[in-house]
Amino acid sequence: MNLRGRNKLDPSFNMSSMTDIVFLLLIFFMLTSTLVTVSAIDILLPKAGGKTESKTSVAVTITSKALFYIDKKRVSEANIEHELLKKVGADKKKTIVIRGDKDVPYKKVMKIIDIANRNKLKMILAVKGK
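The structure assignment produced for this chain is given below.
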């Protein structure tokens, strides 16, 4: 009489499932490490996510031809600070929304930022949504 069971255990271990997991983890870490940038130089501005709106804001628009507008009113570059302070008023609680065209030279945008910093005004850089 054969009393031994038919269930024999195979002492070898199948590594194929373990290697699948290791390769999946390797691919995951390779993909996520490319998303992390320490000091990124390649930037694409002015696109960004998020939306900030303020009801008490003054829009300063700089066109691609370096023309300045304060709330749809054209202002000369030499007179921009005076007109901006007149529009903001004495309480200085209004926020300046800087809307620069993507082809505007950086120093034109910095001129508005310098005016806002000098007069301790709040400012927002407007960017295109994603």
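Interim note for the steering committee: The two ends are 78 Å apart (CA to CA). The longest strand covers residues 57-62.
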